[in-house]
Amino acid sequence: MDHYRLFGYPLGHSLSPRIYQLFSEQTQRPLIYDTNEVTADAFPEAIRRFFNDGGQGANVTAPLKGIAAQWADRLTPAAQLGSVNMLIRLPDGQILGDNSDGFGLINDLQRQQLLTSGARLLLLGAGGAARGLLPQLLATQPAEIVLLNRTESTAVALAEACCSLGSIRVASLQQLPSGPFDLVIQATSVRHQIAFQSMMSTLPWPMAACYDLNYSSTASLTPFLQWAGQQGATQLVDGLGMLVEQAAYAFNCWRQVTPSVDTVLSILRQELACRH
Hints:
The protein is built from ten helices and twelve strands. The chain is an alpha/beta fold. Strands 2-1-3-5-6-4 form a six-stranded mixed sheet, sandwiched between helices. A six-stranded parallel sheet has the order 9-8-7-10-11-12, with helices on both faces. Helix 1 crosses helix 9 (240-255), helix 4 crosses helix 5 and helix 4 (101-111) crosses helix 9 (240-255).
């Protein structure tokens, strides 16, 4: 049976094994999918051993996406900014690094009718998550993408790396562009959100919708979405849909069949509600 694995740290509450189990049952494509909590220092040896032992593909989450990009033999255009969240064994034995996050986000935004042509977007964060999203976000040809990060120099470097894909406007907390945003995408890590929110709470920036890449382990809103609702956001969406969508992309790459996202997402929402 083909073997797939999730690498990252920590992984205690990951829904990925459950998602791939549901995909496997739905499509009748058996597989083994497990997890490996591994630090950045130990990751290169762990992933090498996994593929040497016959592994067919892997998912990679924080804080390993940049290391995975350096480790892969080849990169897809979606991973060209140096963030890899999935690895695929090719017929010639080489390992292809790809990123499904952008595809997952766009598919979920379109499914929920949150992304329209010519939208004005505010992206919070310039780390590995943002690097995985920007190629696909720029491909939708928004009116403007404003990038806001706690460290402005990091945002500037990312915007420069994207120059061949499209234009990104870097803003500081002191000089955030005025006017409403159609969509605010929260792409910072959980540990950075409190600092971000405290810095942004005094800023008068109206927003129509907020999308948090994170999701709650229960049916409740994430802390960021709770805060965004207090600021007046009219639509609050967590990243569970994106998680399932990006997993469906990976499953199709690995197993050559596209599972039903709606079915799996409905099951997961029910299971999270039971936890709550």
